[in-house]
Design a protein that fits this description.
heterotrimer, A mainly alpha (239), B alpha/beta (353), C alpha/beta (345), A: 239 residues, mainly alpha, Fumarate Reductase Iron-sulfur Protein, Chain B, domain 2, 2 domains, globular, B: 353 residues, alpha/beta, Glutathione S-transferase Yfyf (Class Pi), Chain A, domain 2, Rossmann fold, 8 strands
Chain lengths: 239, 353, 345
């Protein structure tokens, strides 16, 4: 028999949760200025109120829902809360727990964590940067406009004029991160649980891809599952 | 609008900003999209002010974008940052100059966490030592690079060749200042002027002759939203928030949007293009879009640098309307040339040309 | 240094000070009443009509003025008390003019300060023209007209509850108790002057904890059509037409809202008076987390503190209305008389 998980206890192991929630009096200043609340069917006050009730079933539903993935982590809520809470920290703790428990694959928005891991996550190890120009493809980013494709096509000349030295060792913008630095970064991920966290995202996503009947590669962004989670939008996320 | 009220608030939020011997940490996004900005900063600090600004090639991403899209655990984030502090210690630096606002946000969040939870600091020391054998100290001073330019805004004003005045009308330019959320929303005391009426960019604008524009959505997030942009399916969020800001800003007839955050600069620039393509809407006057610049690009223009050496041509929204208002002479033929003067292809479909 | 015949010194000539002075005088004690302003009356003088029955504050001021018009009361105005020193069983009260006054017992009735609303930065008080406080509005009521900064009559007025109270961000965790009923009263008074105005109260709770308060709230809805929106205002800004724009959540509906208003009235809370600080430091008087004087006992010792012979009356101990202040001041009289007649003291 599976031991019942008390989600509130698990959340209490996350420092951000402890920092983020003392007690909420439902004043609504967070929702009032939340960019996500304006456009999504989302209300940070309701999330905090629900979590502080410690209702295990409701928290499980939340961990599997679309709701916790709407926050943009701008922290505007932290500035205003008269009780000193931070709904965004509560959301971040929920997101981390949802991924640890494998619940994130139950929602369309949650499944996107796989896409982020395969892009930003892999960039960290490959290049030592979260975002690097050579990893931002114009095809996946048409909103960057024609100037971006132009910059990439003429990158050497563009960056040289502006003082960059694209992909070379030594100081300077867009420098190549030396191998030993990248190795230290990898070791840090190994020692602190970052690598395990990444693997967890991969394992659960692979399971979900099988369930959904979508082709899954162990690497890269060209597979069916990646494209699906990167682009799918059921248009049911707004009011 | 009463200025004295704002001044009172600014006097409450005086921030200590170091004035020399900086350990410089770059921004992933700015390096890629606005490299001229970081180069201006270094050139200005080292060669104009004679300051010591050191860049350690072993510095990596802070992983802030990964943290705020919830793939990088907090313990990992703290240890990556601790490694940068270790590099600082090794190179003998106590003041950090941070180029990215997300980085600035996580650095301050981590320092504050270590204050409230000293056991986390100890754990981080253990992790870092185990992973890399390195040890670290907490920096004495943490400044965002916009804080530093703010600190030296009067020095820049003294060297100004082009004040922020409309040459035709003689009036100060209307400039919207957009502060990155993670600059002061988390810890208002870590931002010049606090979170409600931050003055880090406003101070620059006024020192250089311009007029700061307040508008209802001023404090609103640009909409980066980390995962809300990184994943294509979510980009509507990012776009909508920027559109909201521009709609709110439009009646105030801004000549320029000045930002201090890499993501914000990118989005306020690029989304104007996207909205124009999708909806045919523009937010400037007379069918134009509003140029969006970094504070280094603006400082460079004020000091009389060649705009094309600052990289303003590599935004989607071109700056020519602003340059004309400032009375800055620019050479259209020099715009897309290599460092040694060879002609490059000329990109098409840019905004404001 | 000179000593007066009266041996009880009362610091603060507002409601509590005047009431306790009047009652002690009538009991045969000589009292020196010290007030830092040039006139007595404290905050009561600044209100136009008082809740719950909307009576004119000038009637209450007259009551106090008559009360202290007594041969046993020496009134010193324009004199600020900086500290009190205890020497054995007696006190020296030090003032800013250098005058020292001897006392056998001291009543501190130093009152409250209104929360300085510019500290709640996101509401823009002192920055945006048409953001005013409840105190500013009372001045308009006395003039009988409500006008915007440019002289125009407002059509849509917002009232924000809890400004400077229940708020960790400004350092005041407590509730100021009277702002809700003030908001309800002022909403009705606005409608009496501006019949066609629309008034919106933005609240977290409607705290009507006094006699006839809840009835006033109901009347405000039934007779005056005041709109109540359950959501604390998060921020205030100004649009191109100089109209105020507020953001709040209508928590009963569960959606964020944005509203344009002509004028915004902030219900500023009550804080321990700034001028009490030097007094409490000089005598080692205990104050609570809310910075008001700590009572010796919450139930039967609220007029006393941690220093024998020093007594408290009124809002220097906690937010309270005028009725409660007068009761509290009458209660301190019984404590002081007991103390003065106690052979052991």
């Amino acid at each position: 028999m599976r031991k019942m998980q008390i989600y509130h206890e698990l959340l209490m192991q996350d420092i951000r949760f402890i920092e983020g929630l003392k007690a909420c009096m439902n004043c609504g200043v967070c929702t009032a200025i939340c960019p996500a609340a304006e456009f999504y069917d989302y209300d940070p006050r309701k999330i905090v109120d629900l979590v502080q009730s410690e209702d295990n079933d409701e928290i499980e539903k939340l961990l599997k829902s679309e709701t916790i993935w709407y926050c943009g982590e701008c922290m505007s809520c932290k500035t205003r809360c008269p009780r000193g809470n931070t709904p965004a920290f509560v959301v971040m703790a929920l997101r981390t727990l949802s991924q640890k428990l494998g619940f994130f694959t139950e929602s369309e928005k949650g499944r996107q964590q796989f896409a982020i891991k395969r892009s930003v996550g892999e960039n960290i190890f490959k290049y030592g940067y979260c975002v690097a120009s050579y990893a931002v493809s114009p095809e996946n980013h048409p909103e960057q406009g024609p100037i971006w494709e132009y910059i990439l096509e003429n990158s050497h000349d563009v960056y040289e004029r502006l003082g960059g030295q694209i992909n070379e060792l030594g100081a300077g913008p867009l420098r190549k991160i030396p191998e030993d630095a990248k190795e230290e970064l990898k070791k840090i991920f190994d020692v602190t649980g970052g690598t395990d966290f990444f693997k967890n995202i991969e394992d659960h996503s692979k399971r979900k891809a099988e369930e959904m009947g979508l082709q899954f590669d162990d690497e890269g962004i060209d597979n069916e599952y990646f494209i699906e989670v990167f682009t799918a939008n059921n248009k049911k996320h707004t009011h | 609008m009463k200025k004295e009220g704002k001044k009172k608030i600014w006097s409450e939020y005086q921030k200590e900003i170091a004035d020399d011997h900086f350990f410089y940490v770059r921004s992933c996004i700015r390096q890629s999209f606005f490299p001229g900005s970081e180069q201006f900063f270094l050139n200005f600090m080292r060669n104009v002010l004679g300051k010591d600004v050191y860049e350690n090639p072993s510095h990596t991403t802070c992983t802030g974008i990964g943290y705020h899209s919830d793939i990088v655990p907090f313990a990992t984030l703290m240890t990556v940052v601790a490694r940068h502090f270790a590099l600082m210690k090794e190179s003998g630096y106590k003041n950090i100059a941070i180029s990215c606002v997300t980085s600035f946000g996580i650095y301050t969040e981590i320092i504050e966490t270590w204050k409230h939870f000293p056991e986390e600091l100890e754990k981080t020391r253990e992790y870092l030592y185990k992973a890399t054998g390195r040890e670290f100290d907490i920096p004495e001073n943490m400044a965002h690079t916009s804080d530093i330019i703010y600190k030296f805004r009067n020095e820049i004003a003294a060297l100004a060749k082009n004040l922020l005045i409309n040459k035709k009308t003689g009036e100060p330019l209307n400039i919207v200042e957009h502060i990155g959320c993670h600059y002061s929303k988390m810890f208002p005391k870590h931002g010049v002027g606090g979170a409600e009426f931050p003055n880090v960019l406003g101070g620059m604008i006024e020192a250089w002759g311009g007029k700061v524009v307040d508008y209802p959505e001023r404090r609103h997030c640009c909409g980066f939203g980390f995962r809300q942009y990184l994943v294509q399916a979510n980009r509507g969020y990012s776009l909508s928030n920027t559109a909201k800001k521009f709609s709110s800003m439009k009646p105030f007839k801004a000549d320029l949007v000045l930002t201090n955050c890499p993501g914000c600069t990118m989005f306020m620039d690029k989304w104007q293009y996207t909205i124009k393509e999708m909806e045919g809407i523009v937010y400037g006057e007379e069918g134009e879009s509003i140029p969006v610049l970094t504070y280094e690009e603006l400082a460079g223009l004020v000091m009389g640098y060649n705009p094309w050496d600052l990289g303003v041509q590599y935004h989607m929204v071109q700056s020519e309307p602003l340059l004309r208002k400032l009375g800055i002479a620019y050479d259209p033929d020099n715009k897309f040339k290599t460092k040694d003067g060879r002609q490059m292809p000329v990109p098409e479909n840019l905004i404001n040309v | 240094m000179f000593s007066m015949d009266g041996q009880i010194v009362i610091v603060g000539g507002g409601a509590a000070g005047m009431e306790s002075a009047g009652q002690l005088a009538r009991s045969g004690y000589h009292v020196t009443l010290i007030e830092k302003e040039t006139i007595t009356g404290g905050h009561v003088r600044n209100w136009y009509h008082l809740f719950p029955d909307r009576r004119d504050s000038r009637e209450v001021i007259k009551y106090f003025d008559d009360l202290i018009n007594h041969k046993n009361i020496t009134l010193l105005t324009g004199l600020k008390v900086e500290g009190i020193d205890k020497h054995g069983m007696s006190f020296i009260v030090n003032t800013n003019s250098g005058t020292e006054i001897k006392a056998d017992a001291v009543i501190l009735s130093t009152g409250f300060d209104l929360f300085k609303s510019e500290r709640k930065e996101e509401y823009g008080y002192g920055i945006y023209d048409n953001v005013i406080t409840s105190a500013d509005l009372e001045v308009m009521f006395r003039k009988g007209e409500i006008k915007l900064h440019n002289g125009v009559i407002p059509g849509k007025i917002g009232i924000i509850h809890c400004v400077g109270s229940r708020d960790e961000k400004v350092g005041n965790l407590y509730c100021s108790k009277l702002c809700c009923v003030t908001a309800v009263k002022q909403a009705m008074e606005i409608k009496e002057i501006l019949e066609n105005a629309r008034v919106f109260c933005f609240y977290m709770d409607i705290r009507m904890g006094g006699a006839l308060y809840e009835e006033l709230y109901r009347e405000s809805q039934e007779k005056y059509g005041i709109n109540y929106i359950r959501g604390k205002v998060s921020e205030v800004s100004v649009n191109i037409d100089n109209k105020l724009v507020i953001k709040a959540e209508d928590t009963l509906v569960g959606r964020p809202l944005k509203m344009e208003l002509d004028m915004l009235v902030l219900m500023a809370g009550m804080e321990m008076s700034e001028s009490s600080k030097s007094i409490s430091e000089s005598a080692g008087l205990a104050t609570g987390e809310n910075r008001f004087f700590s009572p010796a006992d919450h139930h039967f010792g609220s007029n006393k503190g941690n220093v024998e012979g020093v007594f408290y009356a009124g809002t220097c101990t906690a937010p309270m209305n005028i009725t409660e202040t007068i009761s509290h001041a009458r209660a301190v009289v019984s404590d002081v008389i007991g103390y003065m007649n106690n052979g052991d003291r």
